[in-house]
Amino acid sequence: MTKKDGKNNEKTETALTVPDERDARKLLFKQLDEQYTLPWKEQAALIRSETPMTERGVALALRVARSFGLPLQGLNIITNKRGEANVYVNADGLRWRLHTDPRGIRNSTAEVIHRPTTIEPWVEIKATITMGDGSEYTNFGAVDCIPGSGVSNALLKSVTKAKRRAGVDAVGVALPIAEDFLEWVEDERKAGKKVDIIDAEYKEMQ
Fold this sequence. Notes:
Number of helices: 6
Oligomer: single chain
């Protein structure tokens, strides 16, 4: 577009171009393909792990990432004492999948279905994610909570947990959620139980 300024000099203006969602997704997946071809040590730096990553461990994470279309930083690797690597998806991975899903996200809601009482001291939330094609995915999150003590924090944690689980259902990532596991370990420790994160079994989701 050409305009004239106050001195009758022609001035060219360049309009900003906003890429549509399809172009944005193509760019993201191009970056993903580039990440998949990095040297393994550079890939190792992207993966969240409690122990140093080996080339074999990176190869496992890469296979999982490719299978589910995830960035490497969207995975956590936790190795038990037998040297077996367990792969978890984390919140970054779920956000990636949700925001690159071709259906798009229409809405996300959370509903309190249980408030803590003396007899039943926990908070429970039902979360629903609605995709652009109208499909809905619902799941639940609960956190122990004594009435009158830390209810607001428990509500926030329950909402986050429920939405993570609904997100897993929406994008079809058949992996346990890293944050759920780590929160379970933390809760067990707070309860005075000895839990070694390197050898912990994934019990919270069972």
